[in-house]
Amino acid sequence: MFTFSLVLALAIPNCLGIWPIPRSLDSGNQILKLSESFAITVGFTNPPQDLLDAVSRTKDSIKTDQLARLVVGRGSTDSNAFRTAESLPGLTVKLEEGASTQPIATEAVAALGLRDESYSLSVSLNGSAELVANTTLGLLRGLSTFEQLWYTYNGTIYTTYAPLTIVNDSPAYPYRGFMLDTARNFFTVSDIKRTLDTMYLVKINVLHWHMTDAQSWPIQIPEFPELAQAGAYSISQSYAPDDIQDVVMYAAERGIDVLVEIDTPGHTSIVGASHPDYVACYLLDWATYASEPPAGQLRLADPAVANFTAGVLSAIAKTLPSTMFSTGGDELNTACYTDDEPTQMILNNTGRTIFEALDDFTATTHGALHDLGKTTVVWEEMVLDYNTTTLRNDTIVMVWVSSEDAAAVVQQGYRIVHAPSNYFYLDCGAGEWISNDPTGNSWCDPFKTWQESYTFDPLENITSDQVHLVLGGEQLLWTEQSGPQNLDSIVWPRAAVSSEIFWTGATLPDGFDRVGNLSEALPRLHDVRYRMVQRGINAINLQPEWCALRPQACDE
Amino acid sequence: MFTFSLVLALAIPNCLGIWPIPRSLDSGNQILKLSESFAITVGFTNPPQDLLDAVSRTKDSIKTDQLARLVVGRGSTDSNAFRTAESLPGLTVKLEEGASTQPIATEAVAALGLRDESYSLSVSLNGSAELVANTTLGLLRGLSTFEQLWYTYNGTIYTTYAPLTIVNDSPAYPYRGFMLDTARNFFTVSDIKRTLDTMYLVKINVLHWHMTDAQSWPIQIPEFPELAQAGAYSISQSYAPDDIQDVVMYAAERGIDVLVEIDTPGHTSIVGASHPDYVACYLLDWATYASEPPAGQLRLADPAVANFTAGVLSAIAKTLPSTMFSTGGDELNTACYTDDEPTQMILNNTGRTIFEALDDFTATTHGALHDLGKTTVVWEEMVLDYNTTTLRNDTIVMVWVSSEDAAAVVQQGYRIVHAPSNYFYLDCGAGEWISNDPTGNSWCDPFKTWQESYTFDPLENITSDQVHLVLGGEQLLWTEQSGPQNLDSIVWPRAAVSSEIFWTGATLPDGFDRVGNLSEALPRLHDVRYRMVQRGINAINLQPEWCALRPQACDE
User: Fold this and answer.
1) Are B435 and A516 a contacting pair at CB < 8 A?
2) What is the Cα–Cα distance from B446 to A308, expressed in whole angstroms?
3) How close B252 comes to chain A (CA, Å)?
4) Which of A190, B34, B253, B491 would you call most buried, defined as having the most Cβ atoms within 10 angstroms of its Cβ?
């Protein structure tokens, strides 16, 4: 028995606490205490306020996390070394010579290709530490790494990973997202901010905010007040313009870009509550005309509807700093248009098919967004099913139906974001929510475990000359069966999985394959999950605590 | 469209708010306001303090629930009637002539057959209301019904169900439980109390507390302090004797009996942390010797171990008021004993098989509990697989492997509690937690939806002369992948389903079959779920709010 335990102890990786794991990492296993007067010094002039704020949050988190190390005894054996261990008096934060000192919030919303998130971090055994980057955004990434080094036992804050050197850690992919649907059920600004805090911790850098859907329209738009008045569940369940700016700024200061999606022309039934003339098959039998209740799609063939939609999208988009904006475009129900008299009349009069009309609709809505300097984002059907010909080459396409569809989209030369339902949908496995079906499972059953998600390979069936088209990926929460009550527990720690896939890439710092290395990953995922809990996030247990304290003992 | 909505409105049942629905119910659809000076008067002398406390809690809840009615507009149309509606100045709470005035806490822990939970409640349109019962426990049940009548719009508290008459509502089955496993992951006393509050709301009357398991021993027993010292995840993650008394009394005052289970002789690996000599195959390969890690089972053939176990069980049982105590008895791994030298030596020396030894072990442990006046409770394998011959006739058997096993247990004359994994396990569907299996599903996949659970028939394959052996049932949370973080959301509102199955029985108050009536049940389940949320419980959304506001609109 004792031999068995000893073997396990030796096999414990040396970097349990860091998620996502840096691409380069050299770490020891010595104990270094945090000095009680520990300070973080910004070593350059005119640092932007949001960097100073981030530094201040890091310092606070290190002191308030109070995470006991995940070993039997929770650190009691570490304490033997406290008397002789060195103390770390401070961390110096620096920019490379001549680097710009733009705010984090500015760097975070730059176009994907223009962001520099790289950083280097060293913590020496004799008690000095330095974080260096080319940008304030890179420094922020380094701070989130630094925060994860620290444990607390009996009041002493310490790391067991000293000395530690990370040279030029930087993400394998520029887009590492999380999608939240705020339309099926409503989430408060506070719910979203809490989620952004945790996204920061694991270096997720895009909040894909699926704002509206068939069931509700929770955003107040000054130019179109009727949409929220008739379409929000209530005014208190809607986002005022100030709320949206608050979320966007809070995100940007944490290195997170907010990609807003207004899903069109499908998933728009609720527009009928204020504009019934603009919506086909409004509240008709959903089983015939929609993938879920309620039915209703924008009458896309009508130029008045296209102009209205372009106006709505522009009214929101112009208030947002992101270079990206999503117009959705998934799950169009063609029967709805076939049976809609006004639509058929227009199509007949103009001699177009419904998909030709969609092309015109898209030209109008995307044109308005391009005029605002936005890069448009769409779901995969726009490319694979509707043969939309007016999409600009720089359109970003989200692949959701199946991971197997990625290659076909890339083949057409579009950039993609991986959002595959068969790996990354966080809501799968909770059963059928259509109420009178006692035996139904969720359409994307089963539940996507962290293990299943972790095995996702972003480059499967992608040729080497197409690799540059893969921007990254995101895990997604559709909220038919979710709300603020289970937000934390259904999202965390699972949504951190894609952050490691797209930050660390295919190779661990020791040169071994990351993919498939579940036994190495799990202790680190436990660690960051327990840290989330210390921060008040209701992240779920992945295993009995017995297993969390004994790496590999609960492997098969 | 408008015609469609009107049809829906007429089809809305008249008693949306009550869960479980009373067995007799006559209700109107008039609005009655709660007077601002509303009072609850106890109309008999010497009421026990715990009834007064319950009355006080009910009065508070009615004022603090502030639940807006689940209709489009959330009650705005009700407010038109507020000016002319009558006000209810008070509720009178009475016992029947000559009834005993024992405390609720005493009635709640009586033997199952001796509890009287019946009550009658009337609320008249002219503003009077009366609750009558034979026992304080019955009054408590009536209070939980009364609490569910009230909504709030713009500061006015009101019901839409007046006049209302419930005559002699009483449960179809005496055992309506919920099981919580506090061993795989730890729950605080506060987590348990929060759960008890919600159990009270839906008339669940047994907390089956699965205290210990292979992974941890979170209970401090003064006579055996070493068990928690070595076996709790930490001392702060264990229950002191006072904690247990606190939970038991809190439960009893809310009409809930606490059935403690110490699972033996399997699921006891953690006993090896303090008593390695008492545990076979301790920490050996779990895939061979246990259904999940870690391996280890009590050396049941050893009389010293049987006596030790009887001592441990008695030490806990003697502190508990319940008439029931569970010794577990599930999932014995026979290979563990076959390969265990000390066990084989004893079996050879005494000329017994392992199951004959189990019989002796059970005689010892159950005997000790019977001496304390306890009725023993076991899992189904003790009857169906191990052919235990020493079980007393009054043993209560929990059927968990499959609902199909119920008939075979009843056939042997034992009383049963339905706890079928295929209907009532709340943890199913969250994937395999053994860490290095990327494609594994949970063993009891899929997720048990409320609809699936609701279709459970307690009398399937039970003959009429066996009906008296069916005590009721419970939904269960095994916590390998759960903890305080998702307790509310994985349990509620789903665990309320069995409370209606076993309170209301097979027939709705209007005479229609309850089973299969999902469309009628869902609006009421939404209602009680939204009420739970108002009480600070993180009960999950069952559907988009759009559906919750529009009964039947999201049926197929």
Assistant:
1) no
2) 44
3) 28
4) B491
User: Hey, what CATH class is A13-170 in?
Assistant: alpha beta
Q: Do B397 and B380 touch, CB atoms closer than 8 A?
A: yes
Summarize pLDDT for B321-344 with one digit per residue, the tens. Answer: 999 999 999 999 999 999 999 999
CATH number of the A175-504 domain: 3.20.20.80
Residues of chain A neighbouring B531 (CB-CB closer than 8 A): none
Q: Do A485 and B533 touch (CB under 8 A)?
A: yes
B53 CB within 8 Å of a chain A CB? no
- Tell me what pLDDT residue B1 has: 32
End-to-end CA distance of chain A: 17
| Nearest CB neighbour to A452, from listed B183, B439, B449 | B439
Chain A residues with CB under 8 Å of B451 CB are 431-432, 435-438, 440
The model's pTM is: 0.96
Cα angle B409-B410-B414, degrees, rounded to a multiple of 5? 85
Q: What is the CA radius of gyration of chain A?
A: 25
Residue type, A477: L
Q: Is the pLDDT of residue B12 over 60?
A: no
Superfamily of domain B14-170: Chitobiase/beta-hexosaminidase domain 2-like (3.30.379.10)
Is residue B260 pLDDT above 90, yes or no?
yes
Distance (Å, rounded) from C-alpha A536 to C-alpha B466?
50
Residue A3 touches partner B, C-beta closer than 8 Å: no
State mean pLDDT over B424-448. Answer: 94
What integer is the mean pLDDT of B436-464?
95
Catalytic amino acids of A?
331
Three-class HEC string of A84-136: CCEEEEEEEEEECCCCCCCCHHHHHCCCHHHCCCCEEEEECCCCCEEEEECCH
Mark yes or no for CB contact A451/B438 under 8 Å: yes
CB contact under 8 A, A215 and B545: yes
Q: Give pLDDT tens digits for B33-58.
A: 999 999 999 999 999 999 999 999 99
The identity of residue B150, as a single letter, is W
- Number of Cβ pairs closer than 8 Å across A and B? 224
Q: Which residues of chain A have pLDDT under 70?
A: 1-15
Percent of chain A with pLDDT over 90: 93
Confidence of residue B433 (pLDDT cuts 50, 70, 90): very high
Instruction: Kindly report whether the peptide bond that precedes residue A276 is cis, defined as omega within 30 degrees of 0.
Output: no
Q: What are phi and psi of B282, to 5 degrees?
A: -60, 115
Interface test with A, best of B67, B229, B435 (most A CBs within 10 A): B435
CB within 8 Å of B236: residues ≥ 6 apart: none
The residue among B453, B383, B469, B391 whose CA lies nearest residue B419 is: B453
Domain limits of chain A? 13-170, 175-504
Q: What is the ipTM of this complex?
A: 0.96
